[in-house]
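User: Sequence recovery, please. Input:
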């Protein structure tokens, strides 16, 4: 009886082990093939993605790049690599919390710089809405950090992590925390990097020079969001934006118009600029590029009365005065800042 019992038990155990292994391999195979199919669909159905065979394709896409204003200064104030790492972790979590609803692809992260790709229908609108929301809620990042620190210290949760948060907040409160964002839409070569252990998407194009200029132009014009003409032409009446200037892309003859979006419907705005003030601004810009310098000076003076907060108006006022006093620009002036004779 004992021998029969052990024989039955051995057979039962063996049978269940076999069944378990069979089902295990079936389930693993099912999910593996499903994952492979998802990967293939992702790279074959998407108009943005290049083909898996590496041939790539040219596509119109919208790129958004966001980074932290004065990041170098901030990072130098932190006393350890740990604080820099913690700060960047909080920052990227904050950005992700906002942008997750706008259907984007991550191209790359370069310390504080995050490059996103927008594709498909309404890509320009989604990119600008995303940028406006990031800028509109910029104070939320610092305020949340402050709230977490105060709450934890009140609860006597004086732990290493909270001390690090406190040190980060102490640095950030020393200046006005802000971002720089540029957006551009262009036709680029979209390349899928599909190697054995690497799967990534990147964009390659000569117009990356324009992107570089847009990022640098934020410093010149004291703005925090700039975009190109191709992007704003697709925005529609739900958005408000203003003309900023004409720039020449380095090594190129073409001149590009750049704009500053500042409002979406009645929900999100980043400038206290009314429609009436926008009309005044457009009157000034019209005089300026027609070389009506005296009329331009009067127009920018009128604009300044109702918008003394606007640093861009001060930049243009100095430029117009320079043109009047030094009799610039020359007759062959192309409209760009580089050749107006004023710096």
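Assistant: Recovered sequence (343 residues):
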């Amino acid at each position: 009886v004992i021998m029969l019992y052990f024989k039955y038990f051995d057979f039962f155990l063996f049978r269940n082990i076999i069944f378990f292994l069979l089902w295990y391999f079936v389930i693993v195979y099912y999910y593996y093939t499903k994952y492979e199919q998802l990967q293939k669909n992702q790279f074959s159905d998407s108009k943005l993605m290049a083909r898996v065979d590496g041939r790539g394709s040219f596509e119109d896409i919208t790129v958004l790049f966001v980074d932290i204003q004065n990041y170098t200064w901030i990072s130098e104030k932190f006393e350890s690599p740990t604080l820099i790492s913690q700060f960047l972790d909080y920052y990227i979590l904050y950005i992700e919390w906002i942008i997750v609803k706008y259907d984007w692809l991550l191209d790359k992260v370069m310390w504080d710089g995050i490059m996103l790709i927008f594709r498909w229908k309404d890509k320009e609108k989604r990119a600008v809405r995303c940028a406006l929301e990031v800028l509109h809620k910029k104070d939320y990042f610092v305020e949340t950090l402050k709230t977490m620190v105060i709450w934890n210290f009140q609860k006597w949760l004086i732990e290493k992590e909270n001390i690090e948060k406190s040190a980060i907040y102490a640095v950030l409160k020393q200046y006005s925390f802000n971002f720089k964002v540029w957006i551009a839409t262009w036709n680029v070569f979209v390349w899928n990097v599909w190697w054995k252990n690497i799967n990534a998407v990147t964009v390659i194009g000569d117009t990356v020079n324009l992107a570089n200029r847009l990022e640098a132009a934020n410093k010149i014009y004291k703005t925090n969001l700039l975009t190109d003409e191709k992007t704003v032409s697709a925005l529609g009446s739900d958005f408000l934006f203003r003309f900023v200037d004409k720039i020449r892309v380095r090594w190129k003859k073409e001149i590009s118009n750049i704009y500053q979006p500042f409002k979406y419907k009645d929900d999100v705005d980043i400038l206290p600029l009314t429609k009436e003030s926008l009309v005044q601004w457009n009157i000034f810009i019209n005089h300026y590029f027609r070389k009506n310098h005296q009329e331009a000076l009067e127009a920018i003076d009128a604009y300044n009365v109702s918008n003394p907060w606007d640093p861009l108006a001060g930049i243009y006022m100095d430029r117009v005065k320079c043109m009047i006093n030094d009799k610039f620009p020359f007759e062959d002036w192309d409209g760009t800042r580089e050749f107006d004779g004023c710096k």
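The first strand starts at residue 57 and ends at 68.
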